[in-house]
Fold:
Amino acid sequence: MAERDKSDRRRGLATAGATVARIARPLFRRRGFAEGAIITDWAAIVGAHLASIALPDRLAFDKGRRDQGTLMVRVVSAFGPEVQHLAPQIIDRVNVHFGYPAVAKLRILPGAMPEPPKRQPRAPAPPPPTEDTLAAVRAVEDPELRAALERLAEALKSSADARPAAGSGPANPPEPAKNRGDK
Structure:
């Protein structure tokens, strides 16, 4: 029975993957990507560094052909020369990934990369336990539970002492930068 459940789950995941691919295929084709994997697997194809400075924009083929295309890559302006220098390796990596010569030329388009998602600010430390809470902890009859609650209260006190209160900024603000003329 367990083996059957496992195989059903795998089949369900494969179906979901096939559904996503089927939905995304027309979107990728509009941008010239007959092979959507160039978008979804870009970081694996070219590596993390190149993926952080360059994104595939379009893949254009000559009329009636599906090989020897031109891959247009949007690159952060300052990294254009680096990507130009690495163009042969990028073309080779893409072609090896697909298993046929899909790309013959690389064309660099200047542009900004999408903003990475912003990190959420760290949650403020919980307030230290109040005297009422500590009195309730002392009233607990089970010695093991009381000891655990006392350790928790102590940890909350020390974390509240170590962290600044929410919205108060860093504990030690940085010194303002001095101009060369200041002495």
Summary: The domain at 25-110 is CATH 3.30.300 (GMP Synthetase; Chain A, domain 3).
